[in-house]
Amino acid sequence: MFIGGVSSLCVTIYIILCLYTVGHGKKIISDTKDDDESDSKSLTFFYNGTVSPLANLSSIIFRNYDSGVRPYCTGEQEIVDLSVDLAVRQLIDLDEPNQIVTMNVWMRLAWRDCQLTWDPNEFEGITVLRVPYSRLWIPDIALYERVSDEFYGLKDYPVQLHADGSVEYNFPSTVQVVCNVDVTNFPFDTQVCPLQFSSWTYHGLHLNITSNNMAADLSNLKENVEWIIRGGPAHRRVSYFNSIPYPYPDVTFNIFLERKPRYYVTNILVPSFLITCIAILGFLLPVDSG
Predict the structure, then answer these.
(1) Alpha-carbon torsion 285, 286, 287, 289, what sign?
(2) Are 196 and 215 within 8 A, CB to CB?
(3) In whole angstroms, what is the distance from residue 111 CA to residue 71 CA?
(4) Is-contact 80 206, C-beta < 8 A?
(5) Would you state the pLDDT for residue 281?
(6) Cβ neighbours of 278 (radius 10 Å)
(7) Which of 89, 115, 166, 203 has its CA 20 to 30 A from that of 192?
(8) Is the torsion defined by CA of 72, 73, 74, 77 positive or negative?
(9) What is the dihedral of CA 274, 277, 279, 285, to 10 degrees?
(10) What is the structure's pLDDT at 153?
(11) Of the candidates 157, 151, 119, which has an alpha carbon nearest to the alpha carbon of residue 135?
């Protein structure tokens, strides 16, 4: 009798536990379902937003990217082809005594990073992505013979990244470089100020520096009151240094400056010539003429 009562009690407790477990399980499933629906709505809202495709693309292509490593394309050469071009915007000053030229320029750098490619069809037709300078590998381009320690503007602007991996980095800068001034033919003189660009650490087997245009762009040049910029042809040179077996290429833009002589002719040469002529005529006058 007692054993039968215990058995009935055990069966009752077992049934209660089963009912509690089933009910609690339904609650967990319901909560999980609600969370999934909430996440789904959140994701739907994220992808339907105007910025979300760009953010999604950026997070995917930069997921395993290291900006400190030079781009490497599987099956291709290790050399990164870098194009260096510039547009001269304004000649600010040519300090002749100190032989320093100051100019506003627009730098135009272009290369390819095959680690950063995507299919526009998978990202709502996005073909261009603008990202901060610090997120990409950037060539350590240097301007030789510059006066200031810093290359102004080099780290201040976003970079344009295209779907095929091509990278364009355009930024304005103010450059100050040494320019040897020869005033032998003053005021009818012409000066040549070179702007030489090269990598500071990479040799030519890792970074091949060229120029697409092989001339400075002068189409947006502002006029200077004293000088005329006649041209800016570029040439590429490869240098070798002692005990280093690697080539070091560079691109140099020779900026030709022609002085405007009118001011000096009008205010210096003509008055000096007239004063000299009057002085000579003074010696030709008779002594008794008074």
Answers:
(1) negative
(2) no
(3) 10
(4) yes
(5) 77
(6) 9
(7) 203
(8) negative
(9) -130
(10) 78
(11) 157
Burial of 209 from C-beta contacts in 10 A (0-12 / 13-18 / 19+): buried
In this structure, what token pair is assigned to residue 94?
């040519």
Tokens linked to 243: 């005990």
d(CA 164, CA 62): 15
The tokens describing 3, both together, are: 């054993």
Q: Which of 205, 257, 208, 252 has its CA nearest to residue 229?
A: 257
Are residues 88 and 216 in contact, defined by beta-carbon separation less than 8 angstroms? yes
Structure tokens at 230: 């006649």
Answer left, alpha or beta for residue 257, where phi above 0 means left and psi between -120 and 50 means alpha.
beta
Cis peptide before 187 (omega within 30 of 0): yes
267 membership: H or E segment, kind and range: none
* The pair of three-digit structure tokens given for residue 178, joined into one six-digit string: 């040494």
Domain 80-267 has CATH 3.40.50.300: no
- Measured in degrees and rounded to the nearest 5, phi and psi for residue 34 equal -65, -40
- Closest Cα partner for 237 from 224, 226, 253, 222? 253
List the chain residues with pLDDT less than 70: 1-51, 75-76, 287-290
DSSP, collapsed to helix, strand or coil, labels residue 83 as strand
Encoding tokens for residue 213?
């245009």
Show the tokens assigned to 273: 């010539």
Ranges of each domain in the chain: 80-267
Given the structure tokens 């189409």, which residue do they identify? 219
**Residues 224, 266: contact at Cβ < 8 Å?**
no
Give the chain's radius of gyration (CA, Å).
36
Place of tokens 């120029």: 211
User: What is the rounded distance in angstroms from the CA atom of residue 90 to the CA atom of residue 102?
Assistant: 9
